[in-house]
Write a structure and sequence with these properties.
By secondary structure, this protein is an alpha+beta fold. It contains 4 helices and 5 strands. The chain has a 5-stranded mixed sheet with strand order 1-2-3-4-5, with helices on both faces. α1 packs across α2. The chain is globular. The termini are far apart.
């Protein structure tokens, strides 16, 4: 079961589950992370701002996708970023990741977005395959030979 949440329909129990899933995600790559309660409160705030959608999978929740939206420069539409995708380890490798990404793309379209982007690690071969099967590309738009790279740094 896949369900989209918004500030009008999200329950405290769902926010708690989102906080737990986000914490588990971050603990897989970081040694320190905010508590599940802090993350749940932050997500509630983001949902209230109208520029964030959360998609939960399964009952009890075993995966999530978080989509952020913003105004675009090049079109009058919104653009979207899939900023988090997480499935509990025991359910990875099935169709759950694909279903979450498809639901995230539907959420972005429903908000009026005409473009979605994401960042994925080069070692995430299985997940990269899911993204590519869904039409994502790591090539520069308009370029057949240039890889699109993501750079970041703390401020």
């Amino acid at each position: 079961m896949i369900r989209r949440l918004d500030i009008r329909s999200v329950t405290g129990e769902e926010l708690d589950a989102i906080g737990r899933l986000l914490r588990a995600l971050n603990l897989e790559v970081e040694e320190e992370t905010p508590t599940a309660q802090v993350l749940a409160a932050r997500v509630a705030e983001l949902l209230g701002g109208g520029d964030t959608d959360v998609v939960l999978a399964e009952d009890p929740p075993a995966g999530l996708a978080v989509v952020r939206l913003r105004k675009a420069i090049w079109t009058p539409h919104l653009e979207a970023s899939l900023v988090e995708l997480y499935v509990v380890p025991e359910l990875r490798g099935g169709e759950l990741e694909r279903r979450l990404v498809e639901a995230a793309m539907d959420a972005a379209r429903d908000h009026g977005a005409d473009f979605i982007e994401l960042t994925v690690g080069s070692t995430e071969v299985r997940l990269r395959s899911v993204y590519e099967e869904l039409g994502f590309s790591n090539r520069e738009l308009g370029s057949e030979d240039g890889l699109a790279l993501h750079y970041s740094r703390p401020l």
